[in-house]
Every structure is written in structure tokens, then in C-alpha cells.
Please model this.
Amino acid sequence: QVQLVESGGGLVQAGGSLRLSCAASGRTFSSYAMGWFRQAPGKQRESVAIIFSSGSTTYTTSVKGRFTISRDNAKNSVYLQMNSLKPEDTAVYYCNMPFGNYWGQGTQVTVSS
Model:
């Protein structure tokens, strides 16, 4: 059984930064892609960024150049550095392991204007 635990959300002003962390347990972490998703009120959950076992990354267009996904396999952790935050980035952010479709509990990010 895989467990994913997110941390690092909070309230920040527009233009500010936050770093989300996701700690994984229960599976050999380094072999799998990991992703960050988000869901804003009244909207569908969307993919924000994915990092593959090779270290290659993909981002949704709206966060390119502002967000950076990274991983530390020694710590079984994946991170999302979010810079130049905008009010439209406000959402609950979820950590995801696509293989097996595991999800964390989510962490709230609120960006005030």
C-alpha cells in the first residue's frame, strides 16, 4: 500500500512563492513517475506537473516558467516549487503516483490579490 502525504500549502500574496512537498512510502519510489494535480472550487482536477523516473518533466501551460517539479529519490519525496503565484493558482493541490493511481490527501494553496 502506497501512502502519499503532502505539506507546504498556505496563504500567500500574489507574486509570492510556496514549496509543496510530498513524502511517499510503501513502494520503491525511484521507479515511478510522480505528479502534482490541483482542483479549484467548481472546477475539474487538472494535472499541473509530472516528473518521470528519468527526471524528465512536463508542465501544464499555465504554470510553465513559474513552477518547478523535482524529486529526491533518497528521501522518497517529490516537490513543487511555485513562484510568481497568481490568484488563479488557488486550489487544493494533490500529489499523485499514476502507477496504481495513488493520491495524497491534498494541501490548500490560497493566493490573495
Summary: The chain has a mean pLDDT of 96. The first strand starts at residue 3 and ends at 7. Residues 30 and 73 are 5 Å apart (CA to CA). The radius of gyration is 13 Å.
